[in-house]
UniProtKB/TrEMBL annotation:
This is Arrestin_C domain-containing protein. GO terms for biological process: protein transport. Belongs to the arrestin family. GO terms for cellular component: cytoplasm. Pfam families: Arrestin_C, Arrestin_N. InterPro entries: Arrestin-like_C, Arrestin-like_N, Arrestin_C-like, Arrestin_domain-protein, Ig_E-set. Residues 170-267 form the Arrestin C-terminal-like domain. It comes from Panagrellus redivivus (Microworm). Residues 16-73 form the Arrestin-like N-terminal domain. Gene3D superfamilies: 2.60.40.640. The lineage of its organism: Eukaryota, Metazoa, Ecdysozoa, Nematoda, Chromadorea.
Amino acid sequence: MSMFANLVNNAQLHEFNIELEKRDACYFPGSNVSGRLVLRAKVPLEVEKVKVMINGIARLKIKSKLTKSGIECVNTNTDLINSVETVAPEKAEQLPDDIVTSVEAKSISALYTVRAEITFRTEENETKKFCAVKGFTVVEPFDLNGLPVCYFEPAVHVLSKKFGLFSCTGGQIKLNFTISRTAFVCGENISIEGKIENKTDRRIDKVVAILQQVFIVSGQNDESNSTTPETSVLDVSDIHEDNLALFVDEGQAIRIERNFAIPAMPPRHHYVDNSSKQRTRGTPQFVVACK
């Protein structure tokens, strides 16, 4: 079980933990978030109430006309104990089928937590309350077998930079590289193979490939007679950078072979404002840029 330990500095309560059934704390939309609470007390407790809350919110971080406040993706409250018991039973809550996946970008975030609160009385008849928080991730199942064949064909890219008025005078730098396919699942590596040719009279210090996450947040008015144009925000974040070649001398050509790891965040459309007049949608994708 995945566990979050909350050590409590209290004379009665020693530890208040949240344990999730799944070790990686990753869940699909529509699945059950199940687990239990563990209470470790130094003395017998008079527990009045233990409450568990599952919260999730999607929010734009930038100032935009699209939306100014986040919306709740999920919000549930469950009273596990309302007596003098000190052992919390196992509990499961089902996530909505249309819940957005977890995302953390410059312009938008969608975060989920499990929060537990315990209320008890001390020997001095004082009421005490303590909290424990556990974050979890919502991911969307993705199957490469359902994609068209075109996503598994090699993608060839050619980049060139000329120096001088003509390539015959100043020369040019030419970069050819191939990506074996354009569809991947989280945790896979993007394999890049190619060649850099320096047909100039100067040395190339380095050639860099950058794995970028491109997030497009777009909003539009749902009213049919509205003349308000669609507004969009482009969010580009560098995920990983690696050198493809270093110090390529004039007239030299170097073969390139590199792998880039994809982070665990699958692409999906996120509707972060479900009001009747305006909708906001975010589309994340990953690209490889070379320079």
